[in-house]
C-alpha cells in the first residue's frame, strides 16, 4: 500500500510545476470550502487528492484551471501567480477532465477541433491513439459514444492542447470496472510521458493503484500526517471488511 | 358611418362578439367569463386614454417633441415590462431598455434617413410603438432562453473554457441557438404574411379606404422595419446578457450570483 503523505511531504525532491499555496475559497455569501490548503504538483507523477465527500477536492482542482479564483492564497504555474497569467493560455497548459464526460454536439472530429481548430486528421488520430481509440472514431457522433469512449475522447481533447498538467476530477466515477482500469492505466502513461497528473478520487483502492503521491483533504484543509494515515488505513479496512 | 369612423354605436356592436365569447365560456364552464370581461373593459379604457393622449401628440399643430417624449416613455415602460416577464435574467431592465433604445435609434434613423416616412408625430409614435412591441416579446424570449441554455449547459460551457476558449467562443453555440429561437418566429411570420393572414397595419389602411397596393407597400416597409428591429434588439440583449454571465477572466458566473 502507498505510504500516506501529509502536507509536509509536498516539499519533495521533485519541484512542483503547479503549486497551491495556502489557498482558501469561500462561496460568496456561503460556506468556506477550502481553508489554507497547500499542495504541489510535480511533472511526471500522479498526485492523488482524496478525502471524504465535501472536503473541497473538486474546488481545489477548479482553482488549478482557474475556473474559480482563491479567496486567499496563491496558485502558481511554473512560479507565476495564476492571477497574472492569461487564463486561456493557462488552461491550455493545465488541462482539466471532468467527472462526467462532456461531449459537445457533433462528431468526435468536431469535439477535438474545439481544443485545436487547426489540428489535422493525422494529429487528431495520433491523440486518439494515445487514449486507446482508433482513427475511425473521428467520424462518430460524440453523443453516441459509450461512457468509457466518451471519457477517453474528452481526455484526447484535453491532450490536443499539449498540457503540462492534467487535472482529473474523479474521471472514472461513472465508468464500469474495465474502463476504470483502462483510464487509470492511461493516467499512468501520461505521467510517464512527463505530464503532471492530479487525480481526485475517494476510492482508496484506486489511490493504491495509481498514486505516486497522495494528499488527504478533510473539511477543506490539509489533513495532518496522523489524520492522513488514519483516513487511508480506515478506508482500506472498511473496504476489506 | 364611413369606413374610417366606427363610432360609439359601432364599438358597442363589436362588443356583441365579446358577449358571444363570454357565453361560450359559460356553456363550456371555462371559468374565463370574468377575465374576458375584465380584459375587454381594461383594453377599452387603456386604448381610449391612449387615443385621447395621442390626439394631442399627433395633432399637426403639436410640437414633434411631444411625439419623441412619448417614445421615451414607451421605451421606459418596455424596460419595466421586460423585467417583469423575465425576472430571473440578470440586469434585464438595463439591457432591455438599452436594446429598445438601440432599436428605436437604428430603425427610425433608417426609415426617416431614407425618407420612407416623413418625420411627424403621426409616424414617429406608431412606428416606434410597433417596433418596441414586437422587439419586447423577442427580448423576453431571448433573455430567458440564454439564461436557460447557459444554466443547463454550464458543464459544456466550462468544458470549453477549460480547453482555453474565450467566453465569447465558449458561449457562442448556446447564444446562437437562443438568438435563432427568438428570430425564427418573426421570419416565419414575415414569410406567411399575405398568404395566411393580413397584417394589422395593412388591414387598418384598407379599412380606412386606402388603395390596397399602397397599403401593401406601407405594410412591407413596416414588416422590414420590425424584422430589423427584432434582430437588433435580440442581438443587443444576447451580447449584453452573455457578457454579464461571464467574468472578465473567462469564468462562468453562477446565474444566481450574476443577478446581484
UniProtKB/TrEMBL annotation, chain A:
Which GO terms fall under biological process for this protein? phosphate ion transmembrane transport
Signal peptide (residue range) = none
Keyword Transcription assigned to the entry: answer is no
The UniProt record lists the ABC transporter domain at 18-241
Keywords assigned by UniProt, alphabetized = ATP-binding, Nucleotide-binding, Transport
GO terms for cellular component: membrane
A single Pfam family it belongs to is: ABC_tran
Q: Per the record's keyword annotation, is Nucleotide-binding included, yes or no?
A: yes
SUPFAM superfamilies for this protein: P-loop containing nucleoside triphosphate hydrolases
The protein's GO terms of the molecular function aspect are: ATP binding; ATP hydrolysis activity; phosphate transmembrane transporter activity
> PANTHER family per the record?
ABC TRANSPORTER I FAMILY MEMBER 17
Name of the protein this chain belongs to: Unannotated protein
UniProtKB/TrEMBL annotation, chain B:
Segments passing through the bilayer: 6-24, 36-57, 63-80, 92-117, 123-143, 192-210, 222-241
Q: Which Gene Ontology cellular-component terms appear in the entry? A: plasma membrane
Q: How does it sit in the membrane?
A: Multi-pass membrane protein
Location comes to: Membrane
- Enumerate the InterPro entries for this protein: UPF0014_fam
The alphabetical list of record keywords is: Membrane, Transmembrane, Transmembrane helix
The Swiss-Prot or TrEMBL record describes its family as follows:
Belongs to the UPF0014 family.
Protein name (record): Unannotated protein
Species name: freshwater metagenome
Amino acid at each position: 500500500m502507498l505510504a500516506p503523505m501529509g502536507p509536509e511531504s509536498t516539499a519533495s525532491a521533485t519541484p512542483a510545476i503547479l503549486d497551491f499555496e495556502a489557498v482558501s475559497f469561500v462561496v460568496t455569501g456561503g460556506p468556506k470550502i477550502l481553508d489554507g490548503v497547500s499542495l504541489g504538483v510535480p511533472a511526471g507523477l500522479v498526485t492523488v487528492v482524496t478525502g471524504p465527500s465535501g472536503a473541497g477536492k473538486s474546488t481545489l482542482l477548479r482553482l488549478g484551471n482557474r475556473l474559480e479564483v482563491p479567496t486567499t492564497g496563491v496558485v502558481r504555474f511554473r512560479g507565476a501567480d495564476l492571477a497574472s497569467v492569461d487564463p486561456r493560455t493557462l488552461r491550455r497548459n493545465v488541462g482539466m477532465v471532468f467527472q462526467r464526460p462532456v461531449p459537445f454536439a457533433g462528431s468526435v472530429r468536431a469535439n477535438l477541433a474545439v481544443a485545436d481548430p487547426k489540428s489535422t486528421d493525422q494529429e487528431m488520430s495520433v491523440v486518439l491513439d494515445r487514449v486507446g481509440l482508433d482513427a475511425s472514431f473521428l467520424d462518430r457522433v460524440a453523443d453516441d459514444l459509450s461512457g468509457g469512449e466518451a471519457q477517453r475522447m474528452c481526455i484526447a481533447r484535453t491532450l490536443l492542447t499539449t498540457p503540462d498538467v492534467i487535472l482529473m476530477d474523479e474521471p472514472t466515477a461513472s465508468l464500469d470496472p474495465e474502463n476504470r482500469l483502462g483510464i487509470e492505466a492511461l493516467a499512468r502513461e501520461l505521467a510517464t510521458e512527463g505530464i503532471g497528473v492530479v487525480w481526485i478520487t475517494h476510492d482508496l483502492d484506486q489511490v493504491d493503484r495509481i498514486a505516486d503521491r497522495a494528499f488527504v483533504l478533510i473539511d477543506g484543509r490539509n489533513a495532518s500526517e496522523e489524520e492522513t494515515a488514519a483516513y487511508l488505513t480506515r478506508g482500506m479496512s472498511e473496504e476489506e471488511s | 358611418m364611413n369606413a374610417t369612423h366606427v363610432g360609439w354605436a359601432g364599438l358597442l356592436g363589436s362588443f356583441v362578439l365579446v358577449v358571444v365569447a363570454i357565453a361560450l365560456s359559460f356553456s363550456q364552464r371555462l371559468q374565463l367569463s370574468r377575465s374576458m370581461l375584465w380584459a375587454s373593459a381594461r383594453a377599452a379604457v387603456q386604448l381610449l386614454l391612449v387615443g385621447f393622449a395621442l390626439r394631442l401628440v399627433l395633432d399637426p399643430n403639436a410640437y414633434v417633441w411631444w411625439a419623441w417624449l412619448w417614445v421615451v416613455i414607451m421605451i421606459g415602460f418596455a424596460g419595466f415590462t421586460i423585467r417583469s416577464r423575465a425576472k430571473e435574467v440578470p440586469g434585464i431592465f438595463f439591457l432591455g431598455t438599452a436594446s429598445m433604445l438601440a432599436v428605436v435609434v437604428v430603425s427610425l434613423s433608417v426609415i426617416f434617413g431614407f425618407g420612407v416616412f416623413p418625420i411627424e408625430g403621426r409616424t414617429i409614435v406608431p412606428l416606434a410603438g410597433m417596433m418596441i412591441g414586437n422587439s419586447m416579446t423577442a427580448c423576453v424570449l431571448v433573455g430567458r432562453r440564454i439564461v436557460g441554455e447557459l444554466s443547463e449547459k454550464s458543464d459544456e460551457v466550462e468544458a470549453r473554457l477549460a480547453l482555453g476558449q474565450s467566453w465569447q467562443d465558449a458561449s457562442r453555440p448556446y447564444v446562437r441557438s437562443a438568438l435563432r429561437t427568438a428570430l425564427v418566429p418573426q421570419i416565419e411570420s414575415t414569410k406567411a404574411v399575405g398568404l395566411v393572414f393580413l397584417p394589422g397595419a395593412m388591414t387598418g389602411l384598407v379599412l380606412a379606404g386606402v388603395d390596397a397596393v399602397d397599403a401593401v407597400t406601407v405594410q412591407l416597409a413596416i414588416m422590414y422595419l420590425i424584422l430589423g428591429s427584432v434582430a437588433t434588439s435580440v442581438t443587443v440583449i444576447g451580447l449584453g446578457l452573455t457578457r454579464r454571465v461571464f467574468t472578465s477572466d473567462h469564468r462562468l458566473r453562477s446565474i444566481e450570483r450574476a443577478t446581484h
